[in-house]
Amino acid sequence: MPAAAQYLEPVTPYSFRVAKNAQRGMKTEVVVYANRRLVAQIEQDLSLDQAVNVSMLPGIVGPSLAMPDIHQGYGFPIGGVAAMDWQEGVVSPGGVGFDINCGVRLVRAPLGVEDVRPRLRELVERIFRDIPCGTGRKGRLDTGKKQLEEILAGGAPWMVKNGYGWERDAEFTEERGCLAGADPGEISARAKERGGPQLGTLGSGNHFLEVQFVEEIHHAEAARAMGIEEGQVVVLIHCGSRGLGHQVCTDFLAQMGPAMKRYGITLPDRQLACVPIQSEEGQKYLKAMRGAANFAWANRQAILHLLRESFVGVFGARARLEVVYDVCHNIAKREKHVLEGRRVDVLVHRKGATRAFPPGHTEIPAAYRGIGQPVLVPGSMGTASWILAGAGGSMERSFGSVCHGAGRLLSRTAARKGRDARQVQADLESRGILVKSETRDGILEELPEAYKNVDEVIEVVVGAGLATKVARLRPMGVIKG
Amino acid sequence: MFEILEHTADIGLRAWGGTQREMASEASRGLTAIVMDASRAKAAVEWEVSAAGEDQEALLVNWLSEILYLLDATGVAIHSVDVADWEMASNGEWRGRGVVRGEPRREEEHPARLIVKGITWHQLQVRKTGEGWCAEVYLDV
Fold first, then answer.
1. Which of the four pLDDT bands, split at 50, 70 and 90, describes residue A137?
2. Cβ-defined contact of A74 to B58 (cutoff 8 Å)
3. What string of H, E and C letters represents the secondary structure of chain B?
4. pTM
């Protein structure tokens, strides 16, 4: 049990807090969005202590936040949100993570579940062939050095301009698929060498591509705006910046230790390594991080391009895939918020958390502005995923953020113990879910039982007023590393 | 010797050796085993590796990041890692140097296991034990 558990007190049915304690080094309180049952699960690992550690970072504004899918990470908890004062605060590469702009893109097909079901096996096999996971096979879109530089600066729109997508794709992507202020020159040659050939690959671990159908609509107007209806087939793509982002994080973490000494920063956990946002190192990291984020959006765009070929290959030219939305859940972004009536200029770290801006926000595409920003929450393999829309409470309570998934419960070893991949695959198949994985462990480690109940996580963010339900999605075909 | 440690989302590695050099070599072998099945890798080609850090823990993270780079970017199926130097320099910085032997990885011969994203500082430890040295490090997967 984490040490901080003894200080956790309920505030509402959907939120708990650890009060600020300056003696223990806390600069602010910790707010956890969860119900009692989820709190009991959260207390099984060290994530709560990690949220307390985050509250000790210099320049933190508002509470250190934990979403209901919070679980133990390294440094920051996964499912953590922390806003830092843009002038006085720090930026932490560990607060973004190795997989910069890991995120989710949802696309809709003009097909119903009854159109796809009879040819599901063919579709899954085809996607598995067309979109490499990247463990054994390189990406099919290996770019030259010059093109890679342009991708790092240009993100998804560059891909669209160069024939890997449609104009509309980037419009329905967070930040329109490109963070301004990226500088490819701050990204090492090694990061480019490691990640460049991986463009258009999914990765392994919890990354996947799922063919799903809309099981239930909870918000008719929002669903209409998103162009989805009950029984419709959609595809969820979950991946990030691959080796490029991983190496950017590695490169900057290696520089942080000596830099922190220069700035006189001491921390309870070395993985929280951070530097002032306004320092030379801080600015260089942000320029490199934005480039890696753009690479991730380009990667999800590349995967969509390949996926479109798979769908047309199986269902013919009518099977046009349209982007519903694309969100990132590992990022640090400069945003303007209002905290207790005061305007603040902050760098919001979202580590395993999704932006969820409410209706009316100017960052939301015009087609969705009336309903709120679409939020895509993948559940565990074989259970369910959710489409939400950001609600008003998110700006007041969580710097416009919500959860990013179900949240892990079991370690990978515990998930594998006593289970057989073929049996798991057969069980899922008997429930109408085809799974194709590059590795045997890939199936076992991502077992539904290894995760919290996604529906319960969703009840909390909705109950806390951070988001509203739009639709529940059920998987049919899973492709993973 | 090395063993895998439990962590909710990621994976840990504990490595032992009679000396610090052996410990670093075992940690490198453990990392390789998490990334791929390299049991059939041949010592056909050599790659020189060097790393540095402000203390021994930092050196271990930076060293394993070098090994990971060989695995993930260069695409090496690692046969063995021979750590020649692992010591504190006169300016207080820790430095490591050694040779990796292996061959270019082929999926059929050396099947992939997990993609490791990076070497973390989470609960990182290097300590002296009765028999030698022990390192604990967590990897982001």
1. low
2. no
3. CEEEECCCCCEEEEEEECCHHHHHHHHHHHHHHHHECCCCCCCCEEEEEEEEECCHHHHHHHHHHHHHHHHHHHCEEEEEEEEEEEEECCCCCEEEEEEEEEEECCCCCCCECCCCCEECCCCCEEEECCCCEEEEEEEEC
4. 0.95
